[in-house]
Amino acid sequence: MIPxxxxxxxxxxxxxxxxxxxxxxxxxKLMAGGHSLIxxxxxxxxxxxxxxxxxxxxGDLRGISVADGTVRVGALTRHSxxxxxxxxxxxxxxxxxxxxMVGDPAVRHRGxxxxxxxxxxxxxxxxxxxxxxxxxxxxxxxxxxxxIAAADFFTGFLESxxxxxxxLTEIRLPVSGGGWNYQKxxxxxxxxxxxxxxxxxxxKGVSLVNMGSTPMRATAVEQAxxxxxxxxxxxxxxxxxxxxxxxxxxxxxYRGHLARVLTERALKAAGIA
Length: 273
Known about the structure:
The protein is an alpha+beta fold. The protein has helices at 14-24, 37-42, 79-84, 86-91, 93-99, 105-110, 113-119, 125-132, 150-153, 219-226, 231-235, 252-270, and strands spanning 7-10, 28-31, 50-53, 64-67, 70-74, 136-141, 144-149, 154-156, 159-160, 167-174, 180-185, 195-200, 205-209, 216-217. α2 links the parallel β2 and β3.
């Protein structure tokens, strides 16, 4: 389908982008790589009157740095940059690995970390990774910057706590220590995950892909691991408090089974339980 008519603004700075958002309110949408917004527009699931293109902004919004035990990633850093960064592979290898599993090379060369997180798709890989890693997301708006824990960022299907006049600028993660693993089950290599599981020892995090209306932490598993449960016993709780969808790829019961199997594999592979 063809998107509904819209005006196009190419922002030359963060300030210009924020000014456009402030002027047009909820009628405006930010676009970075476009892989999340454009499909929604083509199906007319969203019909913004103004598209504000921030894809060519660089500076602090793009790049990876490590200092004082913290990894800082600009929101416009592309998946392919995460995938191939030697610095990230050393400081936060799970994020680099998960980025390498997003879509295909064409998607990874245009898609951005901030765009993926702001899109808030529960079937997406990277939101689960930042949840398990205990990331902090930095948003900028008219009132300045604010820090948001990844666990508090996702509020509903394709919804987050970002205000209409805010944009993500940076993702901060602790330097990794200990085991980690990411398990993803799909029908074809480039498909969305039917179910996925991310575990990170340093953040004591276990998160699930496509097991509810939001990217979610598997808190029952985390608590069981913290109490000394085995991988088998902890993984048995993976679907607790989850609300997996039923669709052509599998019903809720099947997804619950996958979550338990993949969580057990991930915990064992990471050496966490």
